[in-house]
Amino acid sequence: MIEGALWRKWVFYNIPLILFVFVLLFPFYWMIITTFRPDGELYKPWNATSYQPFWTNNPTLEHIKYLFEETSFARWMFNTMFIALASTLISLFCGVLAGYALARLNFPWAGSLGTVIFVTYLVPQTLLFIPLAQIIRNFELGDTPWSLILTYPTFLIPFCTWLMMGYFKAIPKELEECARIDGASRWKAMIYIIIPVAVPGILSSGIIAFTLSWNEFIYALVFLSSPDQKTVPVGVTSELIRGDVFFWGPLMAGALLGSIPVAIVYSFFVEHYVSGLTGSVKG
Amino acid sequence: MAEVTVRKLNKKFDLTHVVKDVDLQIHDKEFVVFVGPSGCGKTTTLRMIAGLEAVTSGEILIDNTIVNEVPPMDRDIAMVFQNYALYPHMSVAGNMAFGLKMRKFEKAEIEKRIKRAADILGIGELLHRKPRQLSGGQRQRVALGRAIVRDPKVFLFDEPLSNLDAKLRVQMRVELKKLHERLAVTSIYVTHDQVEAMTLGDRVVVMKDGWVQQVGEPLELYNTPANRFVAGFIGSPAMNFADVTLSGGDGKLWAEAPGLKIGLPAPIAQRVNGRNGAKATMGIRPEDLHIAGPADPGELCFDVEVEVVEQLGSEILLDTRAGNSTFVASVEPTLRTKVHDRLKLAINPNRLHLFDAQTEAVI
After folding, report:
1. Percent of chain B whose predicted confidence (pLDDT) is above 70
2. Is residue A119 located within the same domain as residue A25?
3. Cβ distance B206 to B220 under 8 Å?
């Protein structure tokens, strides 16, 4: 906290905080207000009389209804959820094992291998989607959820591996040595001691991986084509922007509903998440 | 019960040779302490005995069986770590039960053993707490309890008291000693603290740079150190050293340095014979110096100037200087003296040590 006179507290603490909160929350507010605003108000010119950009007196659910009745939004939600969960689980499984191996097993080239994995994470998706599209076509996976479930781990596994490697390194190795003296094999020491201790780290990388695949756009845009296979980010933008016509109400409703699962996941695990990122393992 | 034997043990990490030709026989029920400055190889030796570190060459035997290739879980040892290494997600009871569960003990037997260990250590009311809810001393006890319940052949301790504050350390030291009396299990204890080594060990192994310098009972190390390193490492305040030149004449051998000329007592003189003119290091412990009185022969006395007076209550430590050598003397608390006073100190001739200037071995 800032000590001293009241004006200092306002100038250096309260006002910046308020500005920051405003900048962060205003888009959400705009999203919500647009979702519930009738079309008549939405497309009113800014200089019209009784123009109220920040409030509506006639809230409506017509955009949400439109979303569910005229588009496959429910289907998109299901697709996104299924793809995000499956790719997160695959990436976590591989990331935890690989992270453990890189952090703990002293095999030759462990250090360089870790770097190589990290470098693959740095290759931009906008470069990778072209060769990946070829591969997807060769395996005849195009326009199926598997085209994403199997390609998302290409950037999620390096990410999870690095996060978990850092987390495992922060766990005192004596814990594991003690378990091994206590009668556990390396495998059992990992299952009974190291993984339970690493749960905050696993949750953090799981949440981030889930969010990354939930929001992913370019692979989903390239690999999926039929409306029923799409994910929320792609479905909303491809079905609700036709030419230069933006269906702002349903667009914002879709964005709002699409962000709710992520918000729930974050708020549910926030405590674990924070301790995971700050790596607080105490003996 | 168990004997531990180490033969020609070596450990190399890439190019660094950290443990060199260690030979050691640890008897059944013996409490042996490895002591030395950091980086002397004591912890690595312990970790090799535990099976946590591969052996480069040599043999480790527990109960006359070579265990070089035996994984830690099958060596029937228990280890207490410096940072306690308690499993943070398990309760105290869970921590103690883990080793027994891994070895598929009956539930009733596990509970019985936990109760017994908790009674011995006085941690009965902590059994349901998590490690983070415990103080440092309590964690240390739980770590000990986890070792005790296993009823192992050998206890290994890796600087277990280093993370405790000074007062608690003294208290736990006494408890460890009592515990060893009671359980009578072969124990190997690593520390860098020579006081812990002296008070706990039946025998002490002094190590430096990977070599064993001397193995012996605490007083043996104190009274007859094998070399200058052991002499300086064991004992607090440390032994005084002065670089001297040996000289003969008028039927007597002398150790000479600027401002200092000490007549060597007959037993040492015999051993030194023939080294006339050689360089050596003279060692004398602070308590073997006293203020010279009329009874002290002149050849054992030398003049010093007081540089610092340390009042400890039970004794006074005088930091003094004679020529370019400094001496700490432990004297009676009744002595009245101050800085820059000139005094005459006398040496107890039977307690004089002489070390070779090159090899540093005792002469």
Report:
1. 99
2. no
3. no
- Specify if A146 maps to a domain: yes
What sign results for the dihedral spanned by CA atoms A9, A11, A17, A18? positive
* A136/A16 same-domain check: no
C-alpha span between B62 and B4 (Å, rounded): 5
Taking the alpha carbons at both ends of chain B, their separation in whole angstroms is 40
Chain B hits for A193, Cβ within 8 Å = 87
Q: Is A113 on the interface with B (CB under 8 A)?
A: no
pLDDT of residue A280: 45
- For residue A245, what pLDDT band results from cuts at 50, 70 and 90? confident
Average pLDDT over residues A16-45: 90
Mutate to test the interface with B, among A181, A188, A195 (most CBs of B within 10 A): A181
Q: Searching chain B, which residue's CA lies closest to the CA of residue A172?
A: B85
CA distance linking residue B233 with residue B238, whole number of Å: 7
What is the set of domains in chain B, with CATH numbers?
Answer: 4-233 (3.40.50.300), 240-356 (2.40.50.140)
A-chain residues within 8 Å CB-CB of B154?
none
The residue type at B133: Q
Please report the ipTM that was assigned to this predicted complex: 0.82
Report if residue A172 sits inside a domain: yes
B89 touches chain A (CB under 8 A): yes
Q: How many domains does chain A have?
A: 2
Q: What is the per-residue pLDDT across B289-343, written as a single tens digit (0 to 9) for each?
A: 999 988 888 889 999 999 999 999 899 999 999 988 999 999 998 888 889 999 9
**What is d(CA B138, CA B132) in angstroms, rounded to the nearest whole number?**
10
Residue B84 Cα, gap to closest chain A Cα (Å): 7
Gap between the Cα atoms of B99 and A188, Å rounded:
12
Q: B97 at the A interface (CB within 8 A)?
A: no
Chain B CB contacts of A282 below 8 Å: 88, 131-132
Helix (H) or strand (E) holding A78: helix A73-104
Work out the average pLDDT over B105-129: 91
Residue A283's pLDDT is 39
- Give the CB-side neighbour count of residue A26, counting CA atoms within 13 A: 8
Measured in Å, how far apart are chain A's first and last C-alpha atoms?
A: 30
Same domain assignment for residues A139 and A30 = no
Burial class (CB in 10 A: 0-12, 13-18, 19+), A4: exposed
Nearest to A226 by CA among A213, A235, A215, A216: A235
Q: Verify that A235 and A186 share a domain, yes or no.
A: yes
The 10s digit of each residue's pLDDT in B187-246 is 999 999 999 999 999 999 999 999 999 999 999 999 999 999 999 999 888 999 999 998
Is residue A57 situated within a structural domain?
no
What are the tens digits of pLDDT across the range B33-90? 999 998 899 999 999 999 999 999 999 999 989 999 999 999 999 999 998 899 998 9
